[in-house]
Amino acid sequence: MMPASLLDQLVDALRVLPGVGPKSAQRIVYQLLQRDREGAAKLARTLADALTQVKHCTRCNTFTEAEICERCLSPQRDPAQLCVVEMPSDLAVMESTQAYRGLYYVLMGRISPLDGVGPRELQLDQLLARATDGLVEEVILATNFTNEGEATAHYLGEMLRARGLRVSRIARGVPVGGELEHTDLGTVAQAFAERRGW
Amino acid sequence: MMPASLLDQLVDALRVLPGVGPKSAQRIVYQLLQRDREGAAKLARTLADALTQVKHCTRCNTFTEAEICERCLSPQRDPAQLCVVEMPSDLAVMESTQAYRGLYYVLMGRISPLDGVGPRELQLDQLLARATDGLVEEVILATNFTNEGEATAHYLGEMLRARGLRVSRIARGVPVGGELEHTDLGTVAQAFAERRGW
Ligand SMILES: [Zn+2]
Ligand SMILES: [Zn+2]
């Protein structure tokens, strides 16, 4: 068998992108090599840089280029409140509501047995260590109201209450089955205000 | 203003991909950095390699890593026939029909005034030089049957006939408005067999 050409390798490598099949990978290759080589070069460079330089904040677990992210270092945030979200995009939604002044922990996922993601894969030890730093008084669970987000919230609630922490869940103002990222800010703000003991 | 973070730069760089907006770029970033760093690294590497090593065949203009591609060098192909297609994917469709044993010229586009692509942008001089090599007896126009593909075929027909070349056009078996890439092979093969003087 002949070694695959660079073009075939590139078509193959593009399949790493969500939703890209062989046909659209082919189209993307032509687009990149024929129409926008400069943009393509920038993409290759930025992606390589991000892979080496972007890591996880040792406190909140979100993506950052620093050891500890700016938000975690800010003296303006209330260290007594810790809001747990699934993804950085959920954190961004919470911030946009301007309803919250505490700190965050980003799970970078959710418990999802079908995808083989359990408590171990989510590295929940790290959340536990973070939540029991002696300053955190309340952990606010802001995972999505999907089945997986709810299961995650239940698991986290039990785990954190067992350590004597006060735990709350944002109110089910977010539609059942809905995701924070696709909910209007007002609803998310209200859901935060109406959080209940968990 | 703060310099954009590497993550923001990567979200921005991903916009070079066709159909990728800010939201899906964000999703792709999480997918790449969180779920498949190995695949992402391979993508960055392969894309950079392709950009430096993939060029155009000096004879048929398709993508290749060599000066002249394998097909153009093959003694098995009939040098008296030259089939002109818009894109490498169209060439692949023609080859799949196994109805053609001549050589190709790939325009890497089509005449499209709305996109600012005219004869000059398509570098048709190169096609003209290729078609007048003394060996080519017939040029078969296999551009798409879209408005732009038809306009391109008309232009090429006049240009090539003016040089005394015999020009044919694959038959309109391909549905009007249709593209080769989305046509079944039988129809494409028939369209080839029924090509007519142009
Ligand atoms: Zn942080
Ligand atoms: Zn060639």
TrEMBL record, chains A, B:
Instruction: Say yes or no: keyword Cell inner membrane present.
Output: no
Using the record's annotation, list all stretches that form the Toprim domain: 80-175
Q: Name one GO molecular function term.
A: zinc ion binding
GO BP term, example: DNA recombination
Q: Where is the signal peptide?
A: none
Q: Which Gene3D superfamilies match?
A: 3.40.1360.10, RecR Domain 1
Give the matching SUPFAM superfamilies.
Answer: Recombination protein RecR
The cross-references to PANTHER family, in alphabetical order and at most eight, read: RECOMBINATION PROTEIN RECR
Q: What is this protein called?
A: Recombination protein RecR
Q: Which organism is it from?
A: Candidatus Dactylopiibacterium carminicum
Upper taxonomic lineage: Bacteria, Pseudomonadati, Pseudomonadota, Betaproteobacteria, Rhodocyclales
Whichever gene encodes this chain, its name is recR
